[in-house]
Structure formats: C-alpha cells, structure tokens
Amino acid sequence: MTGPLVSLIATASVVLAGAPAPAAVPAGDAPDSTERRVIRGEADSVLAISIDGMSVAAVRKLGRTQLPNLYRFMRSGASTMNARTEREMTVTLPNHTGMVTGRRIEAATGGHGVTWNDNRLSPNTVQAAAGSDVRSVFSAVDAAGGSTALFAAKTKFTLWQRSWPDAIDVTTIDEDNSALADKLIADLARDRDFRFLHLSPPDVAGHAHGWMSRPYLRAVRQADALVGRVVKAVNADPVRRATTTILLTSDHGGHGPDHSDPTLLDDYRVVFMSRGAAVDGGVDLYAINPTYQDPGTRRTVYGMRRPPVRNGMIANLALDLLDLPPVEGSEFDVALDLRLTAPPV
Questions:
Q1: According to the UniProt entry, where is the signal peptide (predicted)?
Q2: Range of the domain at 222
Q3: Mind listing the pLDDT tens digit for each residue in 184-227?
Q4: By the 8 A CB rule, do 326 and 99 touch?
Q5: Which of 39, 104, 133, 267 shows a CA-CA span of 20 to 30 A to 216?
C-alpha cells in the first residue's frame, strides 16, 4: 500500500516503511541532536500521541477491562472525555495541523488554512494554504535550541516536513503502526524535547467497516495496546519516566461509515489526556481548570469566555511544559493557562 504513495512525497528527510534507510535520520542540514541543547522546564520531554478516529463512545463502551492502558492513563493523570475538535471540520489533516499550530482551520480568520485531507502537493505547505507565515510547536522548540521528531502512520503528514523542514529533525512515516511504535521507542534513547506520534488503526477500521463495528472496536483495542507499549518504554528508565509528560488526544470521532459532519457530537467530541511529569493523578481537567468549561453536548464556538478543552491545545500545552512561549500566531491556550495540576488550596 505504501509503494504507490511514495511517489507523492517530495522530501528527502522522510523515512518510509520498507526503505533501506534507518528508522530515524536528521533532516536536511539540521544539527545532530547530540549538539542540541535540551530544554529544561516542568518536563524535559513531551510526547504527544494522537489516536486517529478514536471515538469517546468506543472508549466508554470498551471500558477499563478492554482498554486497560487508556484507563490507566486516565487514572494516573489529568484528563477529560469531553474535549472538542476544530469547529470547522472533523477530518484528519486539518485537525492534526491545528494540534501542532494551535490555530483554527479557516485562514480568513487567522487559521492555518489546511482544508484538505489527502496527499496533494498544491498547496505545498501550510504557509501556502494560510497565505502567510505559520509557525508550529516544532518551530518553537527548534528556535529554543531543542530537538523534535514526527512519527506518523499516514503519508499525508509529509505536509508538515515540507512546511517546517528545519524544525522537524526526524520524520518517520510507516503505515504499519506496530513498526511505527517500535521506531518511536527506539528514538527514546535520544535527547528529544518534543515528539509527535500519530496512530491510525481506529480510523482505518472505521472507514472500512464503520464506527462502532466489531473491527472498529478491535482497532481501538489495538491502539490501546500500542499506547501501553509506548508508556511502558517511557517508564522503563526512571529518569525518563520522571521527566517526560505524555499528552494524548484524537483528531475526531466518527458515526456510522463517516466522521466528516462537524455538527455531530460523535464526530466533534474527543478525549484529551495527560500523564507524567508535572501532572496530577486521577483528576478531571475541567475540575482543576475553572477558566475552562465542560461544554456538555454543545459543539461550541471560538472565542468563548470559558472555552472547552480542544485538541488544538496540544502545541501550547507542550510548550508550557517545556517552559517556552506559545506558538507565534496561535489561538488555543495562548495564555498557557491550561493546568495539569490542581491549584493550591
């Protein structure tokens, strides 16, 4: 499946499944990570995980018994099962681009402008889509002298490598999610300030068999197992465990055979979880964040006085944990006020 898609990719720093190159190589003329300064903040390293197409309904239906790793993740950290996607669209590439830029989608109102969800090469970059410069969490970490890496299960994510070629030190694309997790785990041995891991099993199964079908629920369990492997690898080293924060969300849910209706609760409601360094255990994000409001079943709009937690907060939350300023031009959590610990009493 990967072969025909390889021809669509125009970046030499991307490692593809089945290629003879090693799993991770430095991008362009970026300095080797051993020469990079490791940023010291509340966390020394942040790993953001997005489980493509994982619906809240599936997480609730399968429960603690069938999703032991996700439920353990929630018990040991700060989370909610009522976060929101971007308002305009509930599809993969636009929402993921929101996660790393901290922006809405619509370019005319300051968004990143990525409205497509395939491997097209025009527009060739996020900047071209927005019609202006667009920075990302990768840009911010790189500007501070840190190192970043992207691990994704879909080739469309090469858009990010084209958009921020000097800021993403390693881009690894592998449609085999198990192999992709192995490559990320191998990369944990390197000093890396920010990593982004995209896992695709629920979305692939949802499109093939429908959301909440047996194959779809099996794929959610597969994603749970992959998260468990990654968390176990992070925790295997006591120092790494004590200095790493893991953030986990999804780009959209789904309903029946599709997920592209941004007005459906099943499509726009997602999980948002965190655990690790500087995170309280077993707390609800809305309970410890009075400036954010649980939206119930509402879709919500931008610019609310008390907004919902959004998947687009990943970028600035990661930067806050690394003690860095927000992404230039971003909107979500730009005040860096989303707490992962309860306020002092």
A1: 1-23
A2: 2-321
A3: 999 999 999 999 999 999 999 999 999 999 999 999 999 999 99
A4: no
A5: 104
